[in-house]
Specification:
Elements: H1 15-19, H2 24-33, E1 49-52, E2 70-73, E3 87-91, H3 95-106, E4 110-114, H4 120-126, E5 129-130, H5 134-139, E6 144-147, H6 154-160, E7 171-174, H7 180-189, E8 195-201, E9 216-223, H8 228-242, E10 247-250, H9 253-275, H10 287-300, H11 304-312, H12 316-349, H13 357-362
Parallel strand pairs: 3-4, 3-6, 4-5, 6-7, 7-8, 9-10
Antiparallel strand pairs: 1-2, 8-9
Length: 391
Amino acid sequence: MAASPSVRLHHHQPSSWRRSPTPTSNLQFLAARCRWRRLPGAAAARPLRLRATGAAPPPFGSNDSLPGAIEVEEREDQHPPPPQRLKIAVVGFGNYGQFLTRTLVAQGHTVLAHSRSDYSAAAAGLGARFFPDPHDLCECHPDVVLLATSILSAESVVRSLPLHRLRRDTLFADVLSVKEFPKNLLLGALPEEFDIICTHPMFGPESAGNGWAGLPFVFDEVRVGDCPARRARADAFLKIFESEGCRMVEMSCAEHDAHAAGTQFLTHTVGRMLAMLDLRSTPINTKGYESLLRLVDNTCSDSFDLYNGLFMYNKNSTELLNRLEWGMDAVKKKLFDGLHDVLRKQLFDFEVSPEDPAELVVAGGDPDTDEDGEDDGDAVDGDESGSEGNN
């Protein structure tokens, strides 16, 4: 029996075996003994190589086993499996939800959008499907529900979703700028079978205009099941940001909020304070001043609801405001104390010149009194030793 050009046997078989006809029953046995390893993707089957792993067999009979175990080997040049494509429901399809959708669609994921406002035209332009009714959205059984609402509306949106229409092991993730609040919200609102990953991409449409590479992405795997499929889905979701070059930072939600109060909330606070001054560009801008103008533009381009949410739902923000106020008072005190010191020196501590009567008066001298302290009779203040005309 001639072998196929893509099949090669590694050791010589006895001539008696080669001359024997191949019974149908042994062909079926051959198929049962082979171990098939499916190649990734939907590409055409590659040529296979057979490898005989046993020693030379005894003479082949109708009820004997085949000469050694034959297995199908994978080619050495096969490529790694392609990334898993996810069906992602973006709940909250405003500016930030659309910003994320561009990258999700570009990576080949299916995006289902939902929002209280009608963004059907925007969704179609980005290659996503828009669902005005959350029931219709959940009946599509997305792999991931990505919460991209405002912080202030997050709770009402989550509680409005018909969770019973989702698969019992759906992954929920959020991209809110605070983390302990959505963590506690999702743990309290979702069934125990649902997975939860709290994330915060530390960038937005303004700061990520040139791509996501090198920008920090904070995440906390709050609850991910041990099932391999659920683990693979969580990894595939995080891979979205990793493949874009983000700097992946795994951090607890509590630690994130402590850091974010001193970075994000402080930045927004300073930017909005400067905006109250109505700063304008001038012909003599310094680099530092231009940085302040950019800060105002970047922070005030976000809604006040976002800034308010950073304050309301991060317990560290109140302390930061108090510290900021203390810092401003300390700087003002230092400035005014220095000013008072300068004034005191000008009034009391400079050297007196005898040629200038005015300086003598300021320094505490009396031009109408000679060195021995006796009055010369020309005093203008009018006292007991003065002339009668001054009484």
